[in-house]
Amino acid sequence: MKPIDRPLTCAYSNHPRFVTELMDFVRFPSVSAQPQRASDVRRCAEWLAQHLWAIGMEQVQVIPTPRHPIVYADWRRTPQRPTVLIYGHYDVQPPDPLAEWYSPPFEPTIRSNDLYGRGASDDKGQMFTHVKALECYLQTTGELPVNVKCLLEGEEEIGSQNLPAFLERNKDMLVADVAVLSDMRILAPDQPVLTEGLRGALSVGLEIRGPKHDLHSGNFGGAVHNPLQALCEIIAKLHDTNGRVTIPGFYDHVRQWSDRERAYMARVGPSDAQILQDARVKCGWGERGYTLYERTTIRPALTVNGISGGYQGPGVKAVIPARATAKFNFRLVPDQDPGEIYGLFRQYISRITLPTVCSTIRTHLMAKPALVDRNHSAIRAAAVAYRKGFGTSPVFLRSGGTIPVVNLFQTLLGIPTVLMGFALPDDRMHAPNEKFHLPNFFNGIATSIWFLAEVAQMQEFRVAQNWRATQLAAAMM
Amino acid sequence: MKPIDRPLTCAYSNHPRFVTELMDFVRFPSVSAQPQRASDVRRCAEWLAQHLWAIGMEQVQVIPTPRHPIVYADWRRTPQRPTVLIYGHYDVQPPDPLAEWYSPPFEPTIRSNDLYGRGASDDKGQMFTHVKALECYLQTTGELPVNVKCLLEGEEEIGSQNLPAFLERNKDMLVADVAVLSDMRILAPDQPVLTEGLRGALSVGLEIRGPKHDLHSGNFGGAVHNPLQALCEIIAKLHDTNGRVTIPGFYDHVRQWSDRERAYMARVGPSDAQILQDARVKCGWGERGYTLYERTTIRPALTVNGISGGYQGPGVKAVIPARATAKFNFRLVPDQDPGEIYGLFRQYISRITLPTVCSTIRTHLMAKPALVDRNHSAIRAAAVAYRKGFGTSPVFLRSGGTIPVVNLFQTLLGIPTVLMGFALPDDRMHAPNEKFHLPNFFNGIATSIWFLAEVAQMQEFRVAQNWRATQLAAAMM
Questions:
Q1: B200 → chain A, closest CA residue
Q2: pTM, whole model, 2 decimals?
């Protein structure tokens, strides 16, 4: 019996209990965006901390921030081995629209091989694979093969606003050789993926104001520019008929990839048909000259996430509203800078806003894109772990999503992040009926167990004392 | 002392009590559009019926309809005199957005010479002028100078959907020589107006559907046509840069008015500057080649009353919503037909909806435009009454609003309607901080007292038995 067999066996024999525990975790409505859920977020953090303590982690802390707490735990009893920083988030997206859930979002329910509930996949289920892997080691061997630090935050879904300051203040506590993060999709239950690129994000709000107060659309309809109409006219001008964003300068710093890289993407990435099926739409849309996979990864995008204005209740109200608002979300790619794009957006909106109305813009969050080096030894360790956990070698894919912390770890801690996803394309993250595929949960636990064992073999890990010296050298962008 | 002096004196000496009673009336949140307010609507109807009984009206009834009741009362003791049908509505618009009210919408408050509250002007205050005029006659002389029937409905703000069937069923009960209705604006406290035209209305809802469920805008942004964006693109195509509605055929049956008529409108109607001031906007908008007054009266208009879609809560949600909806309101002029315009709108939307999304349209309400003959003797009686009540002769103006009942009275009962407004342009009907100018309330009561006396002098009134014969002949459109 090899040393790794004991934690693996422990994992296989405890699947039912692990699922029950994950359901307890999902039951917390830890919606970070909604102020009225703040106490639920805190209760969830406390539950998680208690759980980490129960499985044998040390230094367990619930650390307050100006908004939602960070849960920290570690195990550092093998100084001659590398250190892994496990990052995850226990907060979840709002569950709206509630009416579209088949089972309530915070009453986790198993149907077929899937666990349904808000956060089941993003990120509670994926994060929990690592927690259970740690448990299997500690329960069966009394130790971990590497040093581990867990950093589990409660503000990922609202832009991790308090995380940069926390990382800055706690650089020393968080020193590690590699971070691992499981908050992304793989291609299929039998095709794991190592994510090598993430888009950045920029969220902005736009308000259009017209008359000082709401007007009767009978008395004034036809003589006053309706802010809702003006907003629609502005939004309609943000894309051209080729699906390209019309903001001048928007594409100036978009990195062009080689034909070889695009050929690799075409070979290993999802086809247009696969992406359409995942999205459950009949036909695609977007920037001409690129596949749907390219449009969502190496090309930037601008989407409207919400519009609000006028009367939305039942029946009819004959009103010209005094104002209308929209929320926008940019996804940015190397080498676009969120701050620069924000400036270009402001200028363009100001230029295309007619003098009949006024516009105001505010920014909600900004995050830079991130890239991971395929040849880093920790990435190779992850590839081995996936092959053992899932029975298939992973492919390298780019993600359209944004995980601000990846760029932060790179910039502030000087370490790469292994993006080791366990979600499926149809997990409906951020949407009603989010679910987590339980076979992925089980394979994920095995993969994490293998990953920790593989990292323990890494030769070129840094000693803690050296990390500051390597920080700038390792920064990629 | 002339006979009319007694009711006039009664009115002058009871102003404070009348205001208190109007405040009691406004206090009812009789919002017809909101199902949860149905019992408030009914309580308001019962209060109004009780009030009519208390002032001496007869046959007082609260008549149920499939939704909100109709209040009826009459006084028919002078068969040799004409019969006046007083129409009004006791239901009100929803008070949203609530946060913008300086005092709560259903806690009527007097500031300066104005009574603030939802429905203070539209239509409780204006309707109440007639109720108080009846009271002044009955209290001082024990009788009315003409026969009077009061028809006060509770569904005007939601399209009077049950009124046509009620009128059809009760033609005999409602037989009259003229209807009077006070639910419109005059130019200023010292410039009364007789309304000679009303626009028709067509309210429709549009839903745009894209993906089967909400999508993550990181994973799918750039590859899927966002229903919110598609909706904006459609709305932006509904007007051209000259402010004209682009629906093919939309203007085909719009009546062209003579230069003489347009010159009269320019002379007596509000100037562009006045309309901009009333709307509290800096600059106008709309169909080129027409004044703002013309754009809101003899020209049709299309406005967006509400848009809803995606995440509208606090903070950020990175979502591509599965669907987006908009509410539209057309204002139509002679000789546009709401049914035909609805067909043209459907065709056009179907044509401009891209294959990347689906659209569904439903109609909420339809009402035809209406015109009143300036030379009818009842209109001349109203002009005299205004001169005595306000000290100034009225001008003839067109309104941009819609009162479906005017066309219904014409078509079903064969009688013209005197449109005798007491509201001011800045009364903020349908908007937050709606108010009624109390001097207009007092002058309105006097005008109604004079109007009933003037109608009593009309020579050419029809005897009740003849009304069926004249019905079709009198129909204007």
A1: A218
A2: 0.81
